Amino acid sequence: MKYWLVKSEPDCFSIADLAKSKRQTTCWDGVRNYQARNFLRDEMRCGDQVLFYHSSCEQPAVMGLCEVVKEAYPDHTAFDRDSDHYDPKSKQSDPTWMMVDIKLVRQFAEPLPLEKLKSVAGLKEMELLRRGSRLSVQPVTRPQFDLILKLAK
DNA sequence: GCCAACGTTGGC
DNA sequence: GCCAACGTTGGC
Q1: Which of A92, A105, A139, A143 has the highest CB neighbour number within 10 Å of its CB?
Q2: Element containing residue A4 per DSSP (H, E)
Q3: How far apart are CA A138 and CA A115, in angstroms?
Q4: Rounded mean pLDDT of A45-52?
Q5: Model pTM?
Q6: Which DSSP category does A117 fall into?
Q7: Are A57 and A30 in contact, with CB atoms under 8 Å apart?
Q8: Is-contact A108 A152, C-beta < 8 A?
């Protein structure tokens, strides 16, 4: 099993929005970065555990835990002229962009702020904390993942 | 294939 | 709103 962290701007789609979604499940659309796409497409498997992170907001934080419930399939928003994520270069016959479905497992009782993560010795190597890191879908190691769940209690 | 210009991300 | 870091684009 693998472990991941995905970023979302809460103004756009928050963990509360996920909690309100049908079956507490959403398609993770709009990823338009090749490295992130490759993780989604090539490595994410059903049952993988996913940390849900709020970015570009007042308090950037890990908000809860999700899991992958559907593996990669074409991101239809890339074909939609009216979508913010429209990409004319992605063709139905050969889709450039993919998405997975994730389901909420549980929201943390308290957000686990970025500021806190920075102070934890065992998380020094996290991709999230790397200077200039912008990956919106990123792998998390098992020890990092376990530590974050422990901190979230 | 290089690299400057530009656009985006995301913390602060 | 600022700005550093990064990714992409496109001329050459």
Answers
A1: A139
A2: strand A3-8
A3: 19
A4: 98
A5: 0.95
A6: H
A7: no
A8: yes
| Cβ-contact A6, A148 below 8 angstroms | no
Strands A137-140 and A98-113: unpaired
On strand C, nucleotides with any atom < 7 Å from a protein CB are 4-9
Asked whether strand C has any atom less than 7 Å from the CB of A131, the reply is yes
Is the pLDDT reported for residue A18 higher than 90? yes
Q: Where are the alpha helices (DSSP H) in chain A?
A: 15-20, 34-38, 114-118, 142-151
Which regions of A45-120 does DSSP assign to beta strands (E)? 49-54, 61-74, 98-113
Residue A21 predicted with pLDDT over 90: yes
Domains located in chain A, CATH noted: 3-152 (3.10.590.10)
Chain A residues 52 to 71 whose Cβ lies within 7 Å of strand B are 55-57, 60
The SS3 of residue A56 is coil
The token duo for A43 is 């490595």
